[in-house]
Amino acid sequence: MRRFAIIAFAFAAAALAACSSGGTTPPPSFRSTPTPVATATPAATATPAAAAVSTTVPVAISTGSGNAIATPLPAPIGYTSNLTVPIAQAAAGTTVTINAATSIPSTLPVLSHGRKVASVRLPQEISTNTVIFFDSIEPSAAITVGGQISASQGFPSGVLSSGTQYYLAFYDPTQPSPAWETISGPVTSSDGLTLTFSGATKSFTLQANQTYGLAIFSLASATATPPPAPATEAYIANNSGIEVVGAAGVATTLPIATTTFGLDDSGALYVTDLAPTPAPVGSGSPTPAPQPPTIAKYAAGSTTVAVSYTPSNPDGIFTSSSGAGAFAVFGGATNPNSGPTSETFDVWNAGATGGPSFSITEPINGVFFGLMAHDGTVYAPHVNPTNGTFQYDVYAPGSSTVTRTIMEQIVPAANQPYFTPNYAAIGPDGTLYVTEYTFEQPDPLAGLYVYKPDGTETFVATTSDANGPGPQGVDVDASGNVYVLNNNSGYQINNDYTIQNDDLHDVTVYSPYGASVLRHITGGFSGYPLAVASDGTAYLSSFDFNGDGVGVDATYAIAAGTTTATQIASIGSTSLVLYDGNRMTTGKRRSASLTSASLGHGGGGPRAHYAAIRRHMAALHH
Predict the structure, then answer these.
(1) Does pTM surpass 0.70?
(2) What does CATH list as the number for 233-279+290-621?
(3) Segment 183-216, tens digit of pLDDT
(4) What ranges do the domains of the chain cover?
(5) 131-162 burial string, b = 16+ CB within 10 Å, else e?
């Protein structure tokens, strides 16, 4: 069951012009002059295998607001759905059930022959069609939409065919003789990956407890070859290059210097390379400020800079990217002698060049933490400087304005100024998973925090021993199973900050939301970070943090469903990104915030470790 936040239900309104306001009124259309014609006879659906997804969500919209909503929508792995639609009315407490798949379920009729359509003329000589995407919606109460609407559907490589015309069909169960009706098209794809349907429609109402259907189809037998099974590779930053390694351990090296990087769904790299901080000019001179990082884009498979970028923040040290090619570089705006004063996200929209499209500045509690989700949503957590509460500010794709705020509800108010998240991941239903560990022991707040789209929060106690817990990485597979990497190395607060080595060496796999433990994976690794492919194969990097041989500098793979970690590379990296040839499936859908160690719960120098951590980051890559 996928749970998506506020108004994700609206994808069914991608039927857009298709829903009636009840009774026998024909559905409004995208076009000003309807042209009734016959629809096509159904043919066997030929689509790539992809798991259906489902969600039930609350509708949070003010009655009569009329605001246009732009939101990502539920879609099977490898697909993306986005919708912009004005919502005129939705009663308080309304919920909506959505189902998305690559074929029409048996609970609805197939696309029928001989039906009249509201607006779209189909070629009469064609008598077959091929469904390539389906969505349904069932509201618990009536919802009225209307106005200028746009729906964009993304597909894995190989699903769409060049030059093929595609149409949008809608099923309205409230009509006297319910049947599929073609309401929009034809459209073609300009990039082989996306279809967009848009237009204006009059107000119409989705009736309560009725299941409406939407299908995208073409008017010929399928000619496209389904995409190949994903072959995930790990991209690992390695000093002056990036090693690309499969689960079997076969590696190639891209000679691209980087400290941190992201990937988009095309395979393009967005690379940030930290410049060494200059040495003081002379005795007694202040420590010079860090130099701005070098930021560049490389096209898939290329080692030549395609685009160079100019950051506004010279202290950006982490990179996080979206599937479409937006990316953010973030870090604390700092005084090199006193530590972070704020956190700045430089954000470039897809296709941007030069300076950032916009910058976001957030308060900071000593934690460098941030996340750009696959759809481009930015999550920026911080302590509110006014009241000391901890919160996550959420920015919609392309927006510099806070869209919503997720408040910390479990940590006691007195402890929230010391709450120190380090890694995060977004589950397939939109749930935010966050691990907390200060890199200092004891840490009474360490564990996994789960923030569901319905506004509830749960805490999961992670693996620990007499030396304490140490969750230092989290990710989620396509089934919603949660993977937490446990490494309790750090500084002992009560022992003059003596370094403590990791003695957990553990990855714990939980059922969705951390409800139960499925298995443990242990080995010689002392790991961070963690990334998980959609099929459940997990990748992690490991480090010899104290330089005494207790840990191993390496990267490991854990095959789906197994309890063995196999070394696939002899390097570890704080930048670990996965790519399967069609989609950046995991990678930077989390922070890479090693520098969360800069603030501890127990007092004792809340900013004291900042310079040491930055030096450790540089040592890993230069």
Answers:
(1) no
(2) 2.130.10.10
(3) 888 889 888 888 988 877 677 788 888 888 888 8
(4) 8-218, 233-279+290-621
(5) bbbbbbbbbbbbbbbbeebbbbbbbbbebbbe
